[in-house]
Amino acid sequence: MVLAELGGQIASALQKMSNGTNIDEKVLNECLKEITRALLHSDVSFPLMREMQNNIKKIVNLEELAAGHNKRQIIEQAIFSELCAGKTTTCTKYAYYHQKKGYKPALVCADTFRAGAFDQLKQNATKARIPFYGSYTESYPVKISVEGVDTFKKENCDLIIVDTSGRHKQEATLFEEMRQVAEATELEESLGIPRQSMKMQHAQNREEMHVKRDAKEHNFQRLQQQEHAKVVDISKRAWEFSSFIEFQEKEMKNIMGEREKKMAEMNKRYFEEMLDLEREFDVFGAVHDQERLNDADDADY
């Protein structure tokens, strides 16, 4: 579906809503359904459509709108605001999304072509509390990109988004500039978001990147689990070895204790036997001496 047909269907949905006599929740939902169908037929991802509907309904709260408000105008402004959000706003949303996921993002404004680009990025980044880098005097986008990326690498930012120019009538210059920026900063991903019509590609790239990151995180977790299992196994073996050594020490102590006990008993028996022998020897010596005395007395007679 070409952009003209898509624009015609969106305009038709808004016209139907405007023709209604009373704009209520039912009319708003029907209008959003027609716009959603048109965008889905243009290959815009469903999660992006659901996000768009939720954002519009947050802006347009029909129950809270007073009677004097122009509901048609408020709804149209909310729809066009969501459909026409530019790349700078998208960069900020992208950074804010990953900030909520635990990353440390940063924004670099390399758009030196559009007046007020740095002011817009600074305003968006300040609201989202995301660090940013840019220059009011430097006109060379590659230099700004390199300086900004180097600055945030030193601050350990793990997601650095470089917002480049989004010129349409100078596509050759634009893509050459983006190529130079990508080579100079060694960017891992390059997303072209010149208008909301390209948001479908951005969503697809973002989804693919999330899948890749999820796969990497899954592999990392699996490796962590494997390493943890190895550590547990080593600890178990060390504990078993330690228990074995402790058991052997106890056994050796028991054996040595038994040996010492046996040696004590043997020594005791040995000394008792020696004492018995000494007693017998003493008795034998006394008898022998008496016999010698008797023999001497007999000789005198």
Q: How does this structure look, described?
A:
Among the domains are: 3-83, Four Helix Bundle (Hemerythrin (Met), subunit A); 87-194, P-loop containing nucleotide triphosphate hydrolases (Rossmann fold, 3-Layer(aba) Sandwich). The chain has 301 residues and is mainly alpha-helical. It has helices spanning 3-19, 25-41, 46-59, 71-83, 87-100, 117-128, 141-154, 171-185, 199-300, and strands at residues 105-109, 132-133, 159-163. The chain is built from nine helices and three strands; from the N terminus they run H-H-H-H-H-E-H-E-H-E-H-H. It starts with a helix and ends with a helix. Strand 1, helix 6 (117-128) and strand 2 (132-133) form a beta-alpha-beta unit. The radius of gyration is 46 Å and the shape is rod-shaped. Helices cover 72% and strands 4% of the residues. The model is unreliable at 194-198 (pLDDT under 50). Strands 2-1-3 form a three-stranded parallel beta sheet, sandwiched between helices.
